[in-house]
Specification:
Radius of gyration: 17 Å
Distance between the termini: 18 Å
Number of domains: 1
Largest sheet: 3 strands, antiparallel
CATH class: Alpha Beta
InterPro entries: AllG-like
CATH topology: v583 fold
Number of strands: 5
CATH architecture: Alpha-Beta Complex
Shape: flat
CATH superfamily: v583 domain like
Helix content: 25-40%
Protein name: DUF1116 domain-containing protein
Strand content: 15-25%
Number of helices: 5
Order of helices and strands: EHHHEEHEEH
Strand order of the largest sheet: 1-5-4
């Protein structure tokens, strides 16, 4: 969280809702891991799904779902990234800068495009889908942010 230094706010990894490659089942899947979530913070990945309807189809959604996912992300972000523009949204910039206050206030969690890794090391990716981070990460971050402001007599 910007302004809180090197602090991390963690929670249990979510189970990815998506499609598996042939020959694999849900029992083979690991909970979400990896760096896909970082892409969301700059306005790519799940936040830009309206620009890539073919991707959302791969993860089990429709073109309408892709637009709706992106529109929902505008509700929890602080700005738009005008480097990444979305033709389907009249070239609006992608939603950028997840705002912990907006996430907690609205209850809307970020939508993350991610690969599904096999639970056994060395097997690799067995599918792709969508996952949401745990709400407690945002609640804990907001609490820490408020406490930090209080120690600086800013609230």
């Amino acid at each position: 969280v910007s302004g809180l230094g090197d602090r991390w706010f963690t929670g249990p990894a979510g189970i990815v809702d998506g499609l598996l490659f042939p020959g694999y089942s849900a029992e083979d899947a690991n909970p979400d891991i990896g760096d896909s979530v970082i892409a969301e913070t700059v306005g790519i990945g799940g936040f830009a799904m309206a620009a890539a309807p073919a991707i959302v189809q791969f993860v089990g959604g429709s073109a309408k779902d892709a637009v709706n996912f992106t529109l929902k992300m505008y509700e929890i972000t602080a700005a738009e990234n005008n480097i990444y523009k979305i033709p389907a949204l009249d070239f609006r910039g992608t939603p950028t800068g997840i705002d912990i206050r907006k996430v907690v206030e609205t209850g809307i969690l970020p939508s993350i495009n991610t690969g599904i890794a096999h639970k056994d090391p060395g097997v690799g990716q067995i599918g792709a889908g969508l996952v949401k981070p745990p709400m407690n990460c945002f609640e804990d971050a907001l609490q820490a942010f408020v406490e930090d402001l209080e120690t600086k007599n800013l609230v």
